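Hey, can you fold this one?
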Amino acid sequence: MPCPIVQLHPLAVGKRKWLFADTLRGARASATIFSLIKTAEANEIEPYEYLPYVLMYIASADTFVKLEALLPLNMKAAIKQ
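Sure. Predicted structure:
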């Protein structure tokens, strides 16, 4: 596992950009994407493979169970196929 300081580096680099999120909604969207990327990495899933998959199926996820199935911790088998 990398040093915690190395893991915080992207946050330090990005914080200057995030200061200029024009709206609360934009800030929440950025936080959501960043959380998905970091959770995918923590579950050893390549974010560039995970995000397109989620974006393709999230519109049809009309229940909590379907949304939960798209979380990175539930996706290892589906992404690696």
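The helical segments are 4-18, 24-42, 47-57, 64-69, 76-79. Let me know if you want another pass with a different chain boundary.
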